[in-house]
Amino acid sequence: MADLLSPLSLRETAVPNRIAVSPMCQYSCEPDGLATEWHRVHLGSRAVGGAGIVMTEATAVDPVGRISPHDLGIWSDEHAEALQPITEFVRDQGGVPGIQLAHAGHKASKTRPWDGNVPIVPDETDPDGAEGWEVLSPSPDAYPPFEGDRPAMRKATQEDIEGVIDAYRAAAERSLAAGFEIAEVHAAHGYLLHEFLSPVTNRREDDYGGNFENRTRLVREIVTAVREVWPDDKPLFVRISGTDWLDDRESWDLDQSVRLADDLAELGVDLVDVSSGGLHPDQAVPGGPNFQVPLAERVREEADVAVGAVGGVTEPEQADAIVRNDRADLVLVGREFLRDPYFGLRASDELERDPDDAAQQWPVQYRRAAHR
Ligand code: FNR
């Protein structure tokens, strides 16, 4: 029986345990998208802290796909070079470096959360003087939460769609050059790919809108393009929103997620990372410990693919139970990794039966001095 500390084999990649740092935007770049000292220390600390997988924040495949001007990016070789020391350090600590490849769609061009998370319209700037831009959307409707200034929005043309697919392919190639071992396509939280998946935001009448097959086309085309350049021995993840939490209307739901997960597995996706929501302010999200785990569990039961569970996991025993009870293959931990960068070491101390084995998980620099 697998538990939280069991290794996880995905293709030729051996992940030392089932604990992953969930992608978390740091909004800490200059407006050039290059990784900074902050990213090196932030991600490096979690690798020291025993995470099996250290996943970057949403990393923009194209400048217009940034949530804020301060997001991390991978749209040039220089971006890959700035990320390379991070992947090297994570590997040195025994962790597996992953990168989340993202396009924020019509949720792009906003100020950072601590500056209010409000749209920056083109020609205007955020408090740091970074300019906004025209955002890309499947349909021309304004994104629901904006009541004041609306972002300039552009309905994606066929050419735009091809550009996004090419940007994902190129980003995957650069991620490989930067030393990443896992690529994750971000198709959740109301960003571009989720906007295409959900009938709430996708009102297109061409091959990319309407029925399930059309709404999922862009995700499938992107996964196919990424898989073409992502080596056969390396794992590919996709993060989805398992549901929009909008049961009162036609929306993206768990039945469609299960169906998509199966399609993705056939295209060579190794793990579906099941989050939820983020598309519309009317969402009725339950919250609380393990609140999204039932979504992951159902995808795991009904689709032929490994799954990651995320959301409200704060305790090693809680994460362990998710794996032991076959609810997910991997547990992604977000905010608790901000509170405790050493969550992985805490888990091995609390769950490992043999204290000597637990001690071995600690970096040699800390072991003799700090391990009890
Ligand atoms: C997030 N989350 C997130 N998700 C994602 O897919 N890409 C991202 O870049 C981010 N950015 C981000 C920043 C910050 C500060 C937080 C707190 C969250 C969501 C995150 O990965 C996770 O799914 C949720 O936080 C729920 O998990 P926890 O925090 O309950 O463990």
Write the layout of secondary structure elements.
Blueprint lengths: L7 E3 L2 E3 L3 E3 L15 H12 L4 E8 L16 H16 L3 E7 L32 E3 L15 E3 L2 H21 L3 E6 L4 H6 L14 H4 L1 H13 L6 E6 L12 H13 L4 E5 L17 H10 L3 E5 L5 H9 L5 E4 L1 H5 L3 H9 L3 H7 L2 H7 L2
Parallel strand pairs: 3-4, 3-12, 4-5, 5-8, 6-7, 8-9, 9-10, 10-11, 11-12
Antiparallel strand pairs: 1-2
Helix pairs in contact: 1-2, 2-3, 3-6, 7-8, 11-12
Organism: Haloarchaeobius amylolyticus
Pfam families: Oxidored_FMN
Keywords: Flavoprotein, FMN, NADP, Oxidoreductase
Provide an overview of this structure.
The chain is of the alpha/beta class and 372 residues long. It has one domain (3-363): Aldolase class I (TIM Barrel, Alpha-Beta Barrel). 35% of the residues lie in helices and 15% in strands. The protein is built from 13 helices and 12 strands. It has an 8-stranded parallel β-barrel with strand order 3-4-5-8-9-10-11-12, surrounded by 7 helices. Helix 9 links the parallel strand 11 (306-310) and strand 12 (330-333). Helix 1 (37-48) runs parallel beside helix 2 (77-92), helix 2 crosses helix 3 (158-178) and helix 7 packs across helix 8. The longest helix has 21 residues, at 158-178. It binds ligand FNR.
Q: Nutshell version of this structure?
A:
By secondary structure, the chain is of the alpha/beta class.
Number of helices: 13
How do the strands line up in the largest sheet?
3-4-5-8-9-10-11-12
Class computed from helices, strands and strand pairing: alpha/beta
The shape is globular
CATH class: Alpha Beta
